[in-house]
Amino acid sequence: MDSPTDQQLANWLDIATEAALAGGAILQRYWGKLDTIAEKGRPGDLVTAADRESETAVLEVLQRHCPDHSILAEESGRHGLATAAYLWAVDPLDGTTNFAHQYPFFSVSIGLVHQGVPILGVVYDPHHRDVFRAAAGRGATCNWQPIRVSTTDSLAQSLLVTGFAYDRRETADNNYNEFCHLTHLTQGVRRGGSASMDLAYVAWGRLDGYWERGLSPWDIAAGIVLVREAGGQVTAYDQQPLDLGSGRLLATNGRLHGALSAALLEVKAGVAAGRQVFGGDRVS
Ligand code: IPD
Ligand code: CA
Ligand code: CA
Hints:
- This protein is of the alpha+beta class.
- It has 2 domains: 6-146, Fructose-1,6-Bisphosphatase, Chain A, domain 1; 155-283, D-Maltodextrin-Binding Protein, domain 2 (3-Layer(aba) Sandwich), CATH 3.40.190.
- It is 33% helix and 27% strand.
- It has helices at 6-30, 49-65, 96-100, 176-185, 195-203, 217-229, 257-272; strands at residues 37-39, 46-48, 70-73, 77-79, 86-94, 107-114, 117-125, 130-135, 139-142, 145-146, 159-162, 188-191, 209-212, 233-235, 249-252, 276-278, 281-283.
- It has an 8-stranded mixed β-sheet, sandwiched between helices. It has a 5-stranded mixed β-sheet with strand order 12-11-13-15-14, sandwiched between helices. A two-stranded antiparallel ribbon has the order 1-2.
- Strand 3 and strand 4 (77-79) form a beta hairpin.
- The radius of gyration is 18 Å and the shape is globular.
- The protein binds D-MYO-inositol-1-phosphate and calcium ion (CA) (2 copies).
């Protein structure tokens, strides 16, 4: 199938921006005014009227402008033909837990995927009014100004971010060992609570690297394009090409990629051998 033209990418970037701003306006309206916060199934996996209404607003814009594209949206699932060449991955509120607690770190995240590869993304932080945009070969911007990843080249000088999926109480593969190990090796590991914003901040150079498991395409499709277009690298933990459906990714400024990958694999090997690995001190 043909690659999109530059003109198509520019057009879709503006459509995604219009959709993200529409969703963001809903979130601003609900900020601090949520009546009901429901759990979707797993403890802590929340949904609110803000998520649902934001999604409706985003989908209205995407479907009006791109009737031939399909959509995968967190709250309402799949829309359009499965055979469509392009798939929008939509998270109408990425960081619902933050939003529900009025912790101002959340976004509307809209990515466009072609043949399994994210090619365009918009992440909108309505609280700080930051619009992050990127498309393949066109660079990444924040509020229409070019952004670049950081130049930090050692883990010891880095600030990283990660997260813990909603199934963390049900699996031993819950990222706790990795979190402890990297906390020892770096200047710190943040837990942002919004995967798309974590990726946007890596693209912006405010954070040096990010890893997480248990993610969905709508959490990461847009942010992956931001990091790559800002000069960073996004792969599987072992530096193999990313499988968007795997739910697991490593994103860095590029300079830290090998070291962070090695640290994650060291934890995996330690756990497989029945040891926990914390910053070089092995605790059995
Ligand atoms: C969540 C956030 C969080 C990540 C979770 C996601 P939601 O999305 O991105 O940072 O750790 O895995 O599910 O539920 O707030 O849209
Ligand atoms: Ca999400
Ligand atoms: Ca969400």
